[in-house]
Amino acid sequence: MTDTLVLAELDGRPEIFYSLQGEGVSQGLPSVFVRLSGCNLQCHWCDTEYTWNWIGTPYAHAKDRPDHAAKHDRASVQCRRTPDEVAALVAQWPCRNIVFTGGEPLLQQAGLEQVARRLRSDDAEYEVEVETNGTLLPSMDLDKSVTRYNVSPKLSHSRMPAAARLIPEVIRYFVESPKATFKFVCADDADAGEIREFQRAFRVEGRRILLMPEATDSLTLEKRREPLFELCKLRGWRYTDRLHVAIFGRRRGV
Q1: pLDDT reading at 81 higher than 90
Q2: Residue 175 to residue 64: CA distance in whole angstroms
Q3: CB of 47 within 8 A of CB of 110?
């Protein structure tokens, strides 16, 4: 069975592009990104809100103003491709690290598993990263294809209720997986307190916790780097930057 994948669209094409991984444990690694459309969370500060904040939906976002709702025409920011078509687009670049991102990729994991299988049937060297909000369990079939999970649990500043963003059985699954690390978008000391509680509650090793500044522009990123740097030293956590924000700002497809 072929599962058609719903992808973000950019300039009339699927948002599939060759770049460097800008975040997480594989930061700096040449990678092909496949951006999926659709998410089961609607974080207030989301920097890819075009994957879920469509005209007609009731969600609020930080970009909303009285004279401008930050909502998108779904037909203009979303497209569909088969796993074969996605695999062919990925294979055009001389790169063997693929990153499934979103939105929330695990909403479409059957199709992702097919993409991974098709790529590896041609070249067994392909590695697969999945960026996920940590609320959905991977299937056994997909897990066999995944090299790394970049799990990004959401904190209270996302304005999502805890019952929606923290699913204990799913978090425990990723804690038990040697493939997973936990990346937190962090702005201040209050966020650090939540992260410490998460670490205690789920018994996560400090070396598997990464702090990343909440920032969508270079000035905010610069302001928040040093405090998080020091916090990581204090708590035994890891720091990850946002290379794409530092270099490209809000540009997509880079």
Answers
A1: yes
A2: 36
A3: no
